[in-house]
């Protein structure tokens, strides 16, 4: 190790010990921190609760700040500010719409005068020209993007305003950029690097495994029985814990049922007053209430190490959301539990799809307006001219930009129509982009179904979804317990036996049995996680995981697909290496209907065809 690098790492450790009270730093933390001190961009993928925030907190002290931290939720900003104020470090402040203007002004002054060196903002704040000018004058030492998967179209929580952050960093004088996320497979990491304009970034990834969290699923066919089981299990569980629900009404109902069972439980959801949400979250951190029953609005960013369980009363819409939420359990490294109460009907696929309808009339209105305008317009002006909210206009303009129908440029990210394209053509192109995103969302729902219904090791399934390979069953899930004869749950086994079965060797469906296709004999096809492949119908994709009989691929056009290795053995041309000169398809030819950029056919009924 070069002398200068060793000195920097020792200084980082000294600051971590003396100013933050941490006895030591993990090797991946020091690697990322040292790269930032060298002026490098850094992308970090580490599990929830593994110390990602430290990677910008410690270097900020060394560099002399200020650090601009982009954080997606006001509640998350508040928790991060409160955590820093408990340390012997410069002050932290937030700029957001939920606090009085006097508080915001006081925060700006504190950063300007050097009293505060951590400044938290939402991505929406960075879309404002005035905010960017004030930030540039502060000469920030770091530009940090938390929850960076939101910048990616493949990320499960895509936020259009995140797309502007790469340009925002440029306008701030281009300090080193740090992107942080707990879950990002290879395609998501590539998207993050592209959209944030990362330059020769140092990528630090430790995988996504949380081996101390035991995984289990309880399956039901009757909603009443499921609700009774949720209440009974949670009331008997070791506190503190979090029970997630699908709706605000369910949060209130379960909290009341638990209180009737003598549990100190409180509901938490976005429909409550901000003061009540703060009171409940602060109380939970202090130990009362001991359990919170919440929608997904609760928990992001909380730093409570002793949460002993995270339970879900209904199945989430994706493994991404689920893994992020269960990551709030067992941050102290002690055993914790993640329990999913699953009823197939709860997936609500049709309701989910219907809720994501595209407003083509608004799209057409935007394009017609831009085509009639000689001068590029800001998003706010587009919203005004078209009678839309700024948020909706931003979402639709970003959709049109991704479809190549509008161009965005200049310090105000002014928008202009691309010439030689009619409003109708632009709407059609934007609809294709929207449908591609919706197919990806639908595939995530099916992958969540697969997790709930698999009889194989659940941890292997989850980690494989994120492109992490583990060759051995984990020994810390209900499937492994069942294989080893531990903690059998006869009721759950009977429920699973009643679940629908699938036995088509051309298609893999994760039903009640361990495999629906016998393990493939002979040498395995030459696929490895993160390999790029090309499918005859679905175009380019990235291999995420392999099992004895199946392979999971994330395709750019249609999302996640599970393919039978038996089918791939019979048809060698079905899944090929796009860089192979002997590949019968030419992925560089955009007129080829299998080309990745060619409009895909409507999504088939099954999302797991081979």
What does this structure look like?
The chain has 610 residues and is α/β, with parallel strands linked by helices. The protein contains 21 helices and 20 strands. Strands 3-4-2-5-6-1-7 form a 7-stranded parallel sheet, with helices on both faces. A 6-stranded parallel sheet has the order 8-13-12-9-11-10, sandwiched between helices. The longest helix has 31 residues, at 423-453.
Which terms summarize this structure?
single chain; 610 residues; alpha/beta; 7-stranded parallel β-sheet; 6-stranded parallel β-sheet; 20 strands; 16% strand; globular; disordered C terminus
For this structure, the quaternary state is single chain
Percent strand? 15-25%
Cα-atom radius of gyration: 25 Å
Basic shape: globular
Largest sheet, strands/sense/barrel: 7 strands, parallel
* Alpha carbon gap, first and last residue: 49 Å
Q: Give the uncertain stretches in residue-range form.
A: 488-523, 581-610
Question: How many distinct beta strands?
Answer: 20
SS field, number of helical segments? 21
Mean of all residue-level pLDDT scores: 81
Strand order of the largest sheet: 3-4-2-5-6-1-7
Structural class: alpha/beta
- Roughly what percent helix? 25-40%
Task: Briefly characterize the structure.
This protein is of the alpha/beta class and 610 residues long.
How do the helices and strands line up, and which of them pair or pack?
Elements lengths: L2 H16 L8 H11 L4 E4 L8 H10 L3 E4 L3 H12 L5 E5 L5 H12 L3 E6 L7 H10 L3 E4 L19 H7 L5 E5 L4 H10 L6 E4 L7 E7 L3 H14 L4 E4 L3 H13 L4 E4 L5 H13 L4 E4 L14 E4 L6 H8 L9 E7 L6 H6 L5 H13 L6 H8 L3 H13 L3 E4 L4 E4 L5 H31 L4 H8 L12 H6 L6 H9 L33 E4 L3 E8 L3 E6 L3 E6 H6 L4 E2 L34
Parallel strand pairs: 1-6, 1-7, 2-4, 2-5, 3-4, 5-6, 8-13, 9-11, 9-12, 10-11, 12-13
Antiparallel strand pairs: 14-15, 16-17, 16-20, 17-18, 18-19
